[in-house]
Amino acid sequence: MERTSKIFGNPMTNKTIRKANHSKKKYAKKFGDDSKKCYPMNVVKNPIIGEVLGVKDLRMDGDTSEAFDMEKGLIVGNIRMGFGHYRISMAIASAANALGYTPYWMDLASYDQTTGSKVIQAQNKLYSLGSRLSQKSKLFNHFVWEPMNYEGFRKLSYNAVDQKNAELMTPLFSNVPKEIPLVATHVWPAQAALHAGMKHVVNAIPDNWPMALHLAEGSVHTIQTHSSYFGYRVLNGMEKDKVLNPMNGDDIVYTGHYIDHELVSNIESDCAARIARVKDGKPMRFLLTIGGAGAQKEIFAAIIRYLLPYVQKNKAVIYVNVGDYKNVWEDLNKEIPALKQVSTEHFNEWDKTVSFTKQALTRDVTGVHSFYHSNIFEVVYVTNLLMRSADVLVTKPSELAFYPVPKLFIKRVGGHEQWGAIHSAEIGDGTLECRDIPHTVQMLQLFLTDPQILTDMCQNIIQSKSQGIYDGAYKVVELAMNKRR
Questions:
Q1: Which pairing describes strands 56-59 and 42-45: parallel, antiparallel, or unpaired?
Q2: Which of 212, 217, 3, 32 is nearest to 119 (CA)?
Q3: Phi, psi torsion values for 388, nearest 5 degrees
Q4: DSSP tally for the chain: helices H, then strands E
Q5: 308 vs 317: CA distance, rounded Å
Q6: Whole-prediction pTM value?
Q7: Total Cβ atoms within 10 A of residue 414
Q8: Count of alpha carbons within 13 Å of 222, Cβ hemisphere only?
Q9: How many CB atoms lie within 10 A of CB 456?
Q10: Residue 246 near residue 214, CB atoms below 8 Å
Q11: Which of 72, 104, 193, 272 is the most buried (most CB within 10 A)?
Q12: CA neighbor of 392 nearest in space, from 469, 346, 445
């Protein structure tokens, strides 16, 4: 079905249609036209999260005789763009596993021989470059990156071009059963699946700022917050001030936050442990996460410098997850010589890392603990494991803004992210966005000197759980499975 010329009944201009067609032709010429190819798709157990989340990978390489489970199977369609979309995918897979379903992991960017994957990889490189440049140049951030992330991706015309490019990704679904439900945690897998004829597609929208970028007409769109519902329903601001034809009520569903079962099911006990540590005067545990673009290093350096004296006095503990950016940790050690003296490195030793995270739930922890892994699944999932024993998550207001742990928000990367911090502050499980280092340090000081801040956030998290705010992943899975019936 052609999905470029009209979006939810709103016609696109001839100029936009020509631009979309040109974009598709450009990529096909650059990476080849494989629209006639029929690619294999094999079911292979995921070696990292296969045991804990029941995840099986869909791979073109590898040999397996395992068939798709047409009764209990659920495809989680995703791409690696930063860590956020993988994080949502893990939450969906975790909920599916907990509900008795079999999650199949389908990363559309991982099939290197295909045109569709090459298109995704090329766009991902551009996004990562822009993200890094935005941190180095205030002018670039102000005049290019912020407007693009805030208003550029908001336009219906942007979605029209994406829809046309997604047609290049349809061969990826050549040997995927069309009846099996698919939850997409990035819009491209949703669009590609629909173009390929998949019949039961749920599009799990991230963030809290309505953008046409996330639209995949033909799917059921799920959102995490009430505040963004009407923005999507009426396509607010997606063609400047024009009143647009709205989405139908069946096209969009509020679900709540997409959170892993392992985190949701332990909210009460984890929050009780945090409150107990505060009351007992135990060192406060800060979890610092370096984003997928490896940006904001100078902010994390300032945070570590401020916290180190507290670490040395056993008033604070620092967890630092540098993801797969080992150079970031090496640079931090060069900038802060004292860091090495109090640090324990957990590098590419997954079993030992998992053991540490389990012990930290019940034992005292001291010093600084850094985590680096080269495997993308380990990179993302270690943050989930560390969150349970952390007291404060220090992060930009990305997808982590929706997680049930007290949060200190540092400066965003892209204007759309600010709305995640606003939502978190409104429900009381996170701070306002600290847009510079002095305000970030001020908030660190408040956490360390006023125990009521952490206690209040923990109580708010427990209250939010009772209201179902963190049940989004379960509801997305149930929606996808019920859609088939």
A1: antiparallel
A2: 32
A3: -65, -35
A4: 19, 18
A5: 9
A6: 0.95
A7: 22
A8: 27
A9: 14
A10: no
A11: 193
A12: 445
